[in-house]
Amino acid sequence: MTDYGHELLFGTFITPTNSDPQGPVRLAQLSEQLGLDLVTFQDHPYQPSFLDTWTLMSWVAAQTERIHISGNVLNLGMRQPALVARSAASLDLLSGGRFEMGVGAGGFWDAMAAMGATRRTPAESVGALEEGIEIMRGIWDAANRTPLRVPGEFHRVDGAKRGPAPAHDIPIWLGAYKKRMLRLTGAQADGWLPSLPYFKEGDLARGNVTIDEAAQEAGRSPSEIRRLLNLGGAITDRSSGPLQGPADQWVEELTLLALEDGVSGFIVMGDDPDQIRAFAHEVAPAVREAVAAERRVAGTVPAVARRGAAALAARRPGIDYDSLPTELAAHAVEPGDREYGAVRHNYLRSGAPGLVLRPQHADEVASGLAWAQEQGVELAVRSAGHGISGRSTNDGGVVLSTSRMRSVEVVDEATRRVRIGAGATWGEVAAALAPRGWAITSGDHGGVGVGGLATTGGIGFLGRLQGLTIDHVVAAEVVTADGRVLRTSRDEHPDLFWALRGAGGNMGVVTWLEIEAGAVGDVVFSQMTLDATDTAGLLEKWGATVEAAPRGLTSFMILGAGRGGQGPMAQLMTVIAAEGADADPDDAIAQLELLADAGPLLGHQAQLLPYSGVVRTEDAHHSGGGDPSSRSGLLTHLDQGTSRAIERLLATGESYFTSIRATGGAGNDVAPDATAYAHRHQNFALSALASNQDRLNQAWDTEIGPVQDGSYLSFDTDDRPERLLEAFPEPTLGRLRTVKAAYDPSNVFRANFPIPPAG
User: Fold this and answer.
1) What ranges does the record give for the region Disordered, renumbered to this chain (predicted)?
2) Contact 638/543 with Cβ under 8 angstroms?
């Protein structure tokens, strides 16, 4: 018996006929309504009676919400692999990770050649497919910044830019029958997708043997290759042969195929809606139940727990990989996995974790936390990985990522309350709220994760108008170190709710937050470049202008040293917004003219657009960014002394990127003890990036230390103990230590400037 332990999939194989163009679409929608997992389409580009399969799959993806989509199989002999890869990644991104790559070398060469395809021998077509797989995977490897070069005999790319990365690790399933194709499947593919009507007796078993041998020779586990099967036949009242009979007969035969031949994907061929209904209602559930029961008795190990020799060799010490709960293993990423390069780093920090867990809901988070605490390695929690400090990754430890929890759901229209998954990005939130004319202040980059920013502070482009992001959080779900799943609010665990708003990373794993959005129309977004030769004078004038401006104006500044014969420059990014209405362009012009007077104006552009046009949806696939050292501090005013201190810091040459964000405004209306973020009188946040922490510390402590008034820890990599009291001045720190002792007495959450539990 051969059971590779894959989760079972059930789907349909639909003819893309164009006589009724909507017919295949209706069958795809029916497949989804019936709860099937997969809908697939034939691909014969030379057949004029068929719709183009790529166009059809794109249309179906837009007309469905859950079901996965694949060609069955796509003809790579007529398509350029790099373009196929980009098309696949695009469809996967647009569909939310629902595209699978069923592909083949092509077989009807007369028809293919008639349309301009290069005729190839069977051996050449396999070689071309092998090169195509390498190119497609290379394009999807967006985390690799080196240009893609594949000097193939049939397909060649020379310096192609990689990307985009798909929404999920797209599996490549090969339609294979002959020995060389079967060996390619075992060595390089993720699945085998043949059609049962093409088989003679024993072909399925012989194919499995060939694939398994090739996989083992390549250092892979045979269980890495899913076995799918297109099924002929019909569900009828009487039995007249294999897969020709009642549903009970189908259940028995498919169960044997799963347990004895390792088939885990069953795809019914045909366009009869009644047959599809019978397959979905009478066959699929019963096969799932029968196979699950046999697996429980046999103690079958899930396929995700089986990896080849190369993957096993990449595992890190101190982690008991084999004990990982099944529900977490399905989406976990190990160092030997293809997805590892896309999840190991964060935005500016390189990492090499031993395992990245990606739970989908709070119960899985609790399971992951319990398991992680049994390992002898560090634990990091990640929202989207954009944090400057880099605490959402590590070397050799476990990373618990909330990236699969990214829904944006309106809970209450009247109060504009929105429930947001911790793994969502602020660009996604802005895009979801824009049609309603709502917005939540959220930093200056759309790739920032909701969970990280909304539990730390949230100094954003709408900050002077709305305050900090945490000021609008009204409830949160959090998983504590002991595995409890708690809903927190002012009335539910109020002590924990207080601590989450400012020191959330020390208290637990937040899975969702409810936030009350503001009514914000179109905003004015201005980008201005000023001569910063007189740096101190520029800062003093800009700071005074910002503080005197209406609260609808929030401005950020980036200071840069002179290069290429040019003097130092300042870039201003300014948002002007109005509560409940569009920003007034005339009023905005007057305010921007005052900002421009801060120094000689070198360039300016401004536009009226939704907030989602400022904080855009961004690619969150991070590859590290030079591992910078950073410091951050809060400033009450940019008076003469403070401005000169910043000027002297720049003169040291230690900071290669210096930014100042305006805060204050509505944020300073909140009492210092209302949240764990106690800094409610400062008006600016200064941060600096450098290549050496010790030298930056020396320059910062000398020049900025005397004028600094608190700190914002998300932008700081200095781990000296005095940073903690700067971030959480007493009595805030004492209160936090008491809450920490109640919810995390063992200091499980210690990666993010650990707060020592009281006692």
Assistant:
1) 617-636
2) yes
